[in-house]
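User: I'm writing a tutorial on reading structure tokens. Could you give me a worked example: one chain, its sequence, then its tokens, then a sentence or two explaining what the tokens reveal?
Assistant: Sure. Here is the example chain.
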Amino acid sequence: MYGHGAAPPTRTSGTVITLRVLFVIAGFLSCGLLSCLPLFRVAVLRGRRTDWLLAWISLPVAIGCLAVVGSVPESDHRGDVALALVLVLGAFSGAYFLVFDIRHHRARPPLGPAPQQTGAYLPPQPPPQGYGYPPAPQPYPAVQHPQLPPQYTPPAPPPQRPAPARIDQVRAELDELSDYLRKHEDGR
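And here are its predicted structure tokens:
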């Protein structure tokens, strides 16, 4: 997807924090008109019906409250209530997004390259096997540390009969099929 030798883009902690700030600012500083953005972000990441419902409901509520603010005179208390409601909606959506996003990123592994382990023995990986057959079990060599007592080394697995080659299996199946067809034609 990213071409030969190209790695997908990674998110650093600075990018995550910047996105959090932008989503919260978009919901509150737009006077609640964009309060649906953080809720849609939560719905996309989480995928639950309640999150989608909250996101879709917040859009007409914000538009309706701003329509009330714009249509009533400034001295009318309904305009103040509608503006307060849309600002509370913006603050709620930002807070809900922050709580979810912080929990979401804590549950995932940390960003960036994994720390290198020193002194750990990693056995060599067996070479890839041919198509269609499971990899043959490879015994791990016994590694003895000079300061540790000797460890138990499991016995080698019994030798296995090699599996028939794929072409032999196909030939056998074709022979069975031709025998079946001959019997079926003779029975007419």
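What the tokens reveal: The chain has a mean pLDDT of 77. The two ends are 56 Å apart (CA to CA).
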